Amino acid sequence: MKLDATDLRYITSDEFRVLTAVEMGSKNHEVVPTSLIAQISGLRNGGVNKLIGNLAKRNLVSKMQNSKYDGYRLTYGGYDYLAMRALSKRDSMYSVGNQIGVGKESDIYIVANSEGEEMVLKLHRLGRVSFRAIKEKRDYLGKRKSASWMYMSRLAAQKEWAFMKVLYDNGFPVPKPIDQARHCILMGYIDAYPLRQVAELPSPGRLYSKLMDLIVRFANAGLIHGDFNEFNILVLRETGEPIVIDFPQMVSTSHENAEWYFNRDVECIRTFFRRRYQYESVLYPKFSRVLRECPSGEEFRLDVMVAASGFGNKEMKVLEEYINANKDREEESNEVDSSEETDGDEGESEEDGEGNFDDDHDIQKGDEKLEEDAVGDRNGQSLR
Ligand code: ADP
Ligand code: MG
């Protein structure tokens, strides 16, 4: 979806009131009745109709014909608008540039602040895929009537923000967290290639070791990434150092399935290195061992720090259920074609992963061969 920065400048304050009223009304109405919008915004009924018509023309809200009443829904565009306006009011961002990523559940844009410094805006889009089906299947919403995409997307952003902050503050190689609003996160731009695009490495063993060390470092701090794969590892263009991104699915090492998540992260890296670089090592971390040998004990529990930071267990649980339900559905729909690509190298050694993972090769600066990838130009568009 294209972000339209022009609206940020040209919306009137009354239109903004109405848009905010639609957002507030959505907390307990799937379709917000026009009368409620008028009531919340504190504007007279007739006036509201015109204003809301303007908003609908710009696709910030959309009109819904309900059997009982007519009303409006906030669109993705409307929610994006509210978030970006908040970020721009706080002077966190000033202009929007090109889209650099479209995930299934996020859109990624290059943006800039008023000094022209480039940053990355990640807009979470949970519920874009098959949200209704999940809603029917699961009962995790408690008293909430509708698990709106808005609510889930905001939770994902809040969680990602909480983790990114605590990781960054504790010296982990993650993007710099800059600001968060609604379903959006603003973070430092990383000049890097996703590992997925790195066709060859002069010394795969060295990066492999670093990644395994990172998994262990996470676990020593009470955390498991949960989606540690070639898409979520960026390799710095200049130094070849890995930067880890994408945290909405992180779990604590105290999670009941922690070992399973941990092993899956480890396996993702092993499989990728085997297939892509024909690199295989008998050394890889074991969960029980990592926990046993965790040097820091209680005082360095980032999972506990995140919980204390306001993103609590309840929110964590709601999001986790959503993510799992979504995964189940994906697997169901993938089952038909999942038989492709087996490596036939299953009988590998289960030797103990003792010692460190370093070998002494060097990544030569900027020497990775890359598959073709067009990184778009970044013509910014001013917001104000
Ligand atoms: P998703 O949840 O959709 O997987 P990610 O956070 O993994 O979203 O980001 C998707 C893609 O956007 C990444 O693979 C990467 O190419 C790019 N990207 C994300 N964050 C940054 C960043 N801080 N700097 C540069 N590129 C980024
Ligand atoms: Mg990702």
Sequence-ordered SSE layout with sheet pairings:
Elements: H1 6-10, H2 13-25, E1 32-33, H3 34-41, H4 45-57, E2 61-65, E3 70-74, H5 76-89, E4 95-102, E5 106-112, E6 118-124, H6 131-137, H7 149-169, E7 177-181, E8 184-188, E9 192-194, E10 198-200, H8 204-220, E11 223-224, E12 233-236, E13 242-244, E14 251-252, H9 258-277, H10 287-292, H11 302-308, H12 313-334, E15 369-370, E16 381-382
Antiparallel strand pairs: 1-3, 2-3, 4-5, 4-16, 5-6, 6-8, 7-8, 9-12, 10-15, 11-14, 12-13
Helix pairs in contact: 2-3, 2-4, 7-11, 7-12, 8-9
The protein binds adenosine-5'-diphosphate and magnesium ion (MG).
Magnesium ion is lined by residues 103, 231-232, 246.
What features would you describe in this structure?
- The protein has 384 residues and is α+β, with helices and mostly antiparallel strands.
- The chain folds into 3 domains: 6-78, Arc Repressor Mutant, subunit A, CATH 1.10.10; 88-190, Phosphorylase Kinase, domain 1 (2-Layer Sandwich); 192-369, Transferase(Phosphotransferase), domain 1 (Orthogonal Bundle).
- 40% of the residues lie in helices and 17% in strands.
- The chain contains 12 helices and 16 strands.
- The strands form 5 sheets. The protein has a 6-stranded antiparallel β-sheet with strand order 7-8-6-5-4-16. A 3-stranded antiparallel β-sheet has the order 1-3-2. Strands 9-12-13 form a 3-stranded antiparallel β-sheet, covered by helices on one side.
- Strand 7 and strand 8 (184-188) form a beta hairpin.
- Helix 2 (13-25) packs across helix 3.
- The longest helix has 22 residues, at 313-334.
- The radius of gyration is 23 Å and the shape is elongated.
- The two termini are 21 Å apart.
- The model is unreliable at 140-146 and 336-384 (pLDDT under 50).
- The protein binds adenosine-5'-diphosphate and magnesium ion (MG).
